[in-house]
């Protein structure tokens, strides 16, 4: 294992979601990520922590940032990496998820990082295979490592999460990022508000302990941090608002909107950005934006998750 890094073993064998993760686990991951943040900024960025561990990245949905971030994290930890794409596999020929994974595990894979379009796919897999499972996004359910890196990024900017007001703006209804962020931020003591068109708000959202606001101006005036979400057009089968132009006019963050606030707020985005829709380029590239810091922090946080789950191998 990495020198000078005390290992706090997680209470779980898998990272399937934030909802069932203990607050102590989240804090252990964030603290461990601080160590890896320092390591990845060294001239020599690679450590031998997972030298004898084999990790399979199974992506049944298209991904760039998450897949590359996980792969880089794994290689920084010296793991052996196997990349799997559903479009170029036997899945396209009708092979089941269990058969696909069991064939990969027969090659002595220790950990599986999986993105899947079906909610609950990671939980299902964890009940049927003997390997550590990390959920890299399952349908509209959860995206735990994104929530962890967002919390990590906010804490590095503000020094704390307790009492910090975070507004999550956009397509709440179809966003796994929103749900995981809500669970994570509330457990760490932040206040959360969701903002967007009424048609893009889940009916249950008020039961999660968050504030609900339909006015972008009021949400931005309330918050310390605005986490902007893109419209999940690939998950929408109905028209949830009259036109994209109207959505931009009501919920797009521009330089003019930020300048109209009586305070400075932090702007975040999980990516990919639809420039000119949820935020304009002069906002995305401004000194109020920490979008690129989120990308860098994502590698450190995923290194921490992999490292801590691998520490349970000896248990």
Description:
The protein has helices at 23-39, 65-76, 97-105, 121-126, 144-158, 176-187, 216-222, 244-251, 255-259, 281-284, 291-310, and strands at 54-59, 80-85, 111-116, 132-138, 165-169, 191-195, 211-213, 225-228, 266-268. Helix 2 links the parallel strand 1 (54-59) and strand 2 (80-85). Helix content is 37%, strand content 14%. It has 315 residues and is an alpha/beta fold. The strands form 2 sheets. Strands 7-6-5-8-9 form a 5-stranded parallel beta sheet, sandwiched between helices. Strands 2-1-3-4 form a 4-stranded parallel beta sheet.
Summed up:
With 315 residues, the chain is α/β, with parallel strands linked by helices. The protein has 11 helices and 9 strands.
Layout of SSEs?
Layout: H1 23-39, E1 54-59, H2 65-76, E2 80-85, H3 97-105, E3 111-116, H4 121-126, E4 132-138, H5 144-158, E5 165-169, H6 176-187, E6 191-195, E7 211-213, H7 216-222, E8 225-228, H8 244-251, H9 255-259, E9 266-268, H10 281-284, H11 291-310
Parallel strand pairs: 1-2, 1-3, 3-4, 5-6, 5-8, 6-7, 8-9
Helix pairs in contact: 1-5, 1-11, 2-11, 5-6, 5-11
């Amino acid at each position: 294992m990495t020198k000078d890094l005390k290992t706090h073993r997680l209470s779980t064998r898998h990272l399937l979601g934030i909802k069932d993760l203990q607050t102590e686990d989240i804090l252990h991951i964030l603290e461990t990520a601080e160590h890896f943040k320092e390591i990845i900024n060294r001239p020599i960025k690679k450590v031998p922590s997972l030298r004898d561990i084999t990790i399979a990245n199974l992506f049944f949905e298209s991904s760039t940032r998450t897949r590359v971030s996980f792969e880089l994290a794994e290689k920084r930890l010296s793991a052996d990496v196997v990349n799997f794409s559903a479009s170029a596999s036997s899945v396209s020929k009708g092979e089941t998820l269990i058969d696909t994974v069991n064939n990969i595990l027969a090659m002595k894979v220790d950990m599986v990082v999986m993105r899947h379009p079906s909610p609950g796919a990671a939980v299902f897999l964890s009940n049927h295979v003997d390997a550590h499972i990390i959920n890299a996004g399952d349908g509209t359910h959860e995206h735990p490592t994104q929530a962890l890196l967002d919390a990590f990024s906010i804490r590095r900017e503000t020094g704390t999460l307790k009492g910090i007001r975070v507004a999550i703006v956009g397509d709440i209804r179809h966003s796994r990022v929103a749900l995981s962020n809500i669970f994570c931020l509330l457990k760490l003591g932040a206040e959360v508000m969701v903002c967007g068109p009424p048609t893009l708000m889940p009916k249950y959202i008020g039961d999660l302990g968050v504030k609900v606001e339909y006015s972008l101006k009021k949400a931005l005036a309330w918050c310390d941090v605005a986490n902007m979400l893109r419209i999940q057009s690939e998950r929408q089968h109905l028209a949830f608002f009259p036109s994209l132009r109207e959505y931009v006019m009501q919920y797009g963050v521009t330089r003019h909107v930020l300048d109209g606030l009586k305070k400075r707020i932090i702007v975040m985005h999980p990516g990919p950005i639809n420039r000119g829709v949820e935020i304009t380029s002069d906002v995305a590239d401004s000194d109020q934006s920490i979008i690129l810091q989120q990308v860098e922090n994502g590698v450190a946080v995923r290194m921490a998750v992999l490292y801590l789950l691998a520490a349970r191998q000896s248990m």
